Amino acid sequence: MPNPTTPGTRALIPKLQEATAARDALAAALTQVGIQLPAMDVRTPWSDPLPDDTEGTAEGTRTPASARYALVHLGVCSAPVALALATVIAKGAAE
Fold it and tell me: Domain-by-domain residue ranges, the chain?
């Protein structure tokens, strides 16, 4: 995760906080039903190039600051964990 004190990222801190809170909430919910996704993390595609829209760009990049975001990356999991996750989702959907 990038350093939030780096120039140009200060406006992105709320997006990082939102993604981190979502990751933590999902991890807690999964833990309650006995599922762990150990590779779950927050990632930012901030170096991805976008069209030449330079208005509002973060320092040192061509990506408009308004287009930057943070993602909750769920990572990979074993087949038994995937099946347990599918079972929990199906059970919740049936309620």
Answer: 10-94
